[in-house]
Write the structure tokens for this entry.
Amino acid sequence: MISTDILFALIAGSSGGGGGAAIVQLGILLLIPLAMYFLMIRPQRRRAREQQELQKSLVVGSEVITTSGVYGTITGEDGPNVLWLEIDDDVQVRIARAAIQGAAVPSTDDDADEETDDEDDSLLGLENDDAD
């Protein structure tokens, strides 16, 4: 343990003009953990809490995406930690509830997709044969 005499000597500085520099250095050393908490630890805890809330709120019929990138619809539960996920017509897989990354983005109408395809073709200089 550091004695109080040594601590005062570090704060005041052994030479007359170095006391201010020691306080600044001590202040910087104390600010580093504070900055790490607000820039790294706190946002990570918030994301983990949001992920847990999402996984708890899953119900049958929810469209989700797994951590491996598989889109599907939850069709049932098999215990508190296992879900049935329908990934295609009559294709169901069992997955862990923790493997759910997030809610799937709803798909747009087919008409809107066709319009954007036509616009992309015209930008590339391709002509649309459907107009004939």
